[in-house]
Every structure is written in structure tokens, then in C-alpha cells.
Amino acid sequence: MGISCCKQVRVTNGNVTRIIADGEKSIVWIKGEKIGSGAFGTVFRAIDTETADYFAVKCIPLKPYKDHSCKLIKLIQKEVNILKTLNHPNIIKYYQTDLDIHNNEISIIIEYASNGNLQTFVSEFKPLSHKVLQRFTREILMALSYMHGKGIIHRDLKCSNILIAEDSSIKLSDFGLSKLIESDDKVLEIAGTLYWMPPEMFTNRGYSFAADVWSLGCTVVEMMTGSPPWANTYKLVKDIIKAITSPNNFPEIPSCSAELKDFLLKCFTRKPEDRPSAEELLHHPFLTDSFSAVITATVTEL
Predict the structure, then answer these.
(1) Which CATH superfamily is domain 118-293 in?
(2) Which of 63, 97, 129, 177 has CB atoms 3.0–4.6 Å from 156's, for a disulfide?
(3) What are 206-247's pLDDT values in tens digits?
(4) Is 174 annotated in some ligand binding site?
(5) Is 53 annotated as a binding residue?
(6) Per-residue model confidence as pLDDT tens digits over 248-297
(7) Helices (DSSP H) in 103-150: which residue ranges?
(8) Whether the domain at 8-110 and the domain at 118-293 fall into the same CATH topology
């Protein structure tokens, strides 16, 4: 029951207008328990009243932002427009948007990931095994490679913005800060969460898709330790920015295998033009096991 990226239609039922894809049925849902919250809204579990299928519903009240509601609606529209263009097994799926005039609320209906977010998972089960780190990292990279191929930078990659489905597959979510750019464009505005930001974001030269690769490295460290680089060392904003931008100050890499260390060093390449792309990193030995195979063969020969 996917929503395609084709022409949209509006279905009005009382005070609610549902924006859906042409040819798809409107989802009528019942809100259940709260499962999360964000800067502008609250996420609830919901069911389709016809099929009993689960969904997640992000409810955003407009009343608290009445003086800035037009700006907020534009931000929501931008996120939804990006979500509608994405169709990948490791990216959360978008279904429809409801405009509730009576309650002055916007609801975004998306895929339900029953195992919560990666931050909670890591907090409960760290340290993650090498195999789990491999699989999660590979699936995040597959989603990033797909997004970058469509000209989209995520700009806020971190464990709390990554969900885990019932089958334990990874689902990238929260595209509120994502940006669509041309392949040669550079973005100048600072966006994201400080500990995960790349050094080039604090220069006047701009940044591009490589910013997500640096953030991926920070996210892998977070999966290993429960915290991103520098989080346990620097607390003041000015100190964090200084640590990120100092040429000789690299993120501390926890004790790990040689192939994982090499993978992280590549993610943390200071010059973005020298940093491997998401697609290139998918072929790194950490994710293919060829690095370990070479070491094993060498030791055996000795």
C-alpha cells in the first residue's frame, strides 16, 4: 500500500483533508500510544481502521506556533516532499499527510518501526558485536548512497534518527533538516546536531554529500560506545567546535578491529574532497570481510 511519487489528490472527510497519491486509497486511522517526540510534534502508534495495519503518526499542533505557522508548514512540506521521493528498504516509508482544520493540527503518516530507535537499542545492548555493527553500518550506507544518488543530504544522521523495524532492518528517518541539491552545489547554512557535524560545515567554503559520511563515522562510534566523539570530553559549544575544526585533532576511535579502524579513519578524512563517498565505503573491507580474510591468509602462511 505504498504512496508513489506521482500526482496527488485531496480527500476531504469532515474537518480532515488527506493528501494522498493519485490511485491510492486514503488511510483512516486511530491513534494509539505515544512512542516518541521531537522538536515540533509527538509521534504515536496508530492502526488502519480497515486493515489493522500499524503505522506511526507524527502529530504537529499549529496553535503553539501561530505567529510562525506559515514557516512551520513550509518546513513540514519540505520534509514531506523529500520523503515522497524516497523508496528504499532502509528508509522510513511515507504514506499520507492529514490536515485537521478543527484541531489545527498536521499529521504525517509513515511506516511503523516496532523496535524503536537505534539510540535506545545501543543503550540497552552495547557493546554491539562486530557482526551487528557491520550489518547496521552497511544498511545505513545503502540508504545514504541511494539518497545521495537522488541529490539529497540528510544533515542530521545519528542513532536517534535511525529506526529498527520488526525484522531488525535499519530505517533512516527524520528528514526535517534534509536538503535537495545539485551534484556540484555547496551548502553554506549550518544544520544538524553539533557532535555529529563535519569540520567543513564551519567554513565559508560550503559542504555537500561528504558531510553525511563524517556523520556516519560519528554514528558508528556512537553505536560502539553509546556516545558520539568528544561528547565525554567537551561540553561547551565553543570547545566542541574547536575540537571538530582543529586540523590535528581527530575523533577518538575506540578499541576495535583493524578493518573497522581503517573504515572510521576514512570517514574522518578532514578534507571532504578526499573523503570516500557512501557508495565507495560500501566496498570497504570492514563491510565485505575481505580485510579479515587477507590477514588470516597471511598468518596461516607464516
Answers:
(1) Transferase(Phosphotransferase) domain 1 (1.10.510.10)
(2) 177
(3) 999 999 999 999 999 999 999 999 999 999 999 999 999 999
(4) yes
(5) no
(6) 888 999 999 999 999 999 999 999 999 999 999 999 999 997 544 443 33
(7) 118-125, 130-149
(8) no
**What is the grid cell recorded at 3?**
504512496
CA distance readout (Å), 39 to 116, 174, 252: 18, 11, 30
Amino acid sitting at position 111: E
44: its cell numbers: 504515536
d(CA 162, CA 13): 33
pLDDT score of 298 more than 90: no
Known catalytic residues are: 156
CATH class of 8-110: alpha beta
Structural domain boundaries in the chain: 8-110, 118-293
Supply 225's cell numbers: 560506545
**Distance, CA of 12 to CA of 90 (rounded, Å):** 32
The closest alpha carbon to 197, from 175, 176, 219, 181, belongs to: 219
Grid cell, residue 184, equals: 556540484
d(CA 162, CA 219): 10
